[in-house]
Structure formats: structure tokens, C-alpha cells
Amino acid sequence: MQDPTLIKIRGRGAVENPPNRFEPIEYVPDLDAYDPDEPAPPTQFFRDATRNILAHNNSPDVGFDTSINPYRGCEHGCIYCYARPGHEYFGLSAGLDFETKIFVKLDAAKLLREEFMKKSWKPKTIVISGVTDCYQPAERRFRITRGLLEVFAEFRNPVGMITKNHLITRDLDILADLASDNLAGISVSITSLRNEIQRVMEPRTSVPAKRLAAVEALRKAGVPVNVMIGPVVPGLTDEELPAILKAAADAGARSAGYIMLRLPYAVKDLFETWLARHFPERQDKVLNRIRSLRGGELYHSKFGERMRGEGIFADQIEMLFDTTCRKLGLNEERAKLSTAHFRRPGEQLKLL
What we know:
The chain is built from twelve helices and ten strands. By secondary structure, it is α/β, with parallel strands linked by helices. Strands 2-3-6-7-8-9-10 form a seven-stranded mixed β-sheet, covered by helices on one side. A three-stranded mixed β-sheet has the order 1-5-4. The termini are far apart.
């Protein structure tokens, strides 16, 4: 039988479907029949018939409490993605299923308009992509995110966005319009500046240079941009932190943040196998460094620590980040979005 760490599928982060923690049945591939020349598994799309478009959270580690995720699952295939275990609730796997079986919320814009029309709605910032990326490849086809932005523009409700994809520049016209009333703030995620790492760790995302180009284009359009180093992978990408911040500042970012690698549930095993496959010489260093941040474990979910880690190394990363930001003039001001412009269609006519 072949060593599973030798299997690679072009354009995918995971190559296996580990057991679902809720299901007694698992798929075990025939490694002896593995053919590297076979086409990669195609992406399948399924309609998500949810009737509630807004998601809420009360975590003190998250900078927002209301979000919209147009897609469940993500074709970007980032191996470390903390959203992967969400697919297990559908009876699927956090592995290859997560990046090849995408649930699409075709009614998202309609549902958002209904929320805004309710008299009970109090305008506040909503973040698009709190879990999976709203500009993943499926967006080119379905245009759900653009439809949502059109609703935000119609009602003048503030919106924040998080993405790893240059595709966001397609919607510069709407984003610039929103930003003119202080209604839009964007975070572009940059994990590494090295294509050879991005290619295998985040296989269907935009290359680092394209993400920096998106930062520059957004800034030129008058849209405030934050760069999120998410996640910092200790022992693999942490050394790049100053260089990423410098490149982000040069491209026009006004602020920056970072998140330490998180490996909940099945993501731990996926990430460990991925390391053995692509970076075997660094595997022990990376895993040991992660454990040093997580009290000897690969993950713990304690509020206040899960985004930063704990211990000496976590303190060093935080100090390096803060010092570099000060040198570059980042985080001297952060965009504060406005709710003052919110309106409902027809309200002005009623006043007349």
C-alpha cells in the first residue's frame, strides 16, 4: 500500500476525507489504485435553502457579531481552515468534501432585503465572509456577493468584508460608492508572500502579488483596507510577518491584524498529514511550536487565547507585530463605519 502522504491532487488542499465525528461510516480510498494522472475531483454545487441569512456570534475573540456567508464550504481549499468541521453537520467530511461540495445560498440578496425592510432592523455593520470566503471561485459564476453588495448600497447599511481573492476588485464600483459614505471596510488576508507555500497551503486562492494588487486597487478607489495575516503558521510562515506588513503598508493598507493558526477537530489530522506531504523537514518544528502555543496540545478553544495562543512564543509574535506596525504607521487609525445613512426605499416619499 502506498504511503498516503505521497498522494497529491493538483489544486486541492486536502486529498482525503477523514472520518466524520458524527457518522459511524467513513470512506477509505484504495491507495494502491491511486493514479496521479487522473483528473482532480470536480467541484459540485448544491442549493442551500436556508431562510435565515444572518449569522450571530457572541465570541469576545471576533470583532463583529453579525455576518453573512453566501457559501458553505470553500473551493479555495486552505488546509488550515477552521470552517472545515462545519461540513460534518451535513454528513460530509472536513477534508476533500469541504472544498468540492459547495452549498450556495442563491436567495441571499432577497433574504437580506427582507431583513432590512423589517421595522425591527437597527442598522449596524454586517460582515460578509465570517466563515468561508465570499469571493471563492464559485462567485464568478453565481455572483451572490455582488447581489448582496447591491442591497447594502440600496439601503446604505455598512458592510465589512474578508477575502483572499483578487476577484473583489470586480466590485470596486459598488465598494467605492459605499465607501463614499463611510459604509465599507475591507480585510484582505495574506498568509505568506511565497508562491510555493501559497500554492499548496491555499491552492485556489489568489497568489500573494494579486492580493497586494487588490489592496492597492481598493485603496485607490477610496476604500479603507486592513490586511489580516491569517493565520500565522508557527515554524513555517511566522518569519514572514514583518515582510508581509511592509508589503501591505506599501500597497496602501491602513491597518493590520493577525490570527494564530487554529486546528479544531478534524483539521488537526488534516494539517498534520499535509505537513508530512509537503514540508516533512519542518513537520516536527511546526507541530512542536503549535503545542508550545496551546498548552501542549494542537488546539484549545479558550476564549481570549484561541486567536493568539499563550506562552513566550505567543508574546514574541505579538511584540514583533506591534513593533513592526508602529514602524510602518499601521493601526494609527481604523475605519469606523457609519450607520447614519441607512434608509428604506420609499421612506422619503412617505415624508412628503
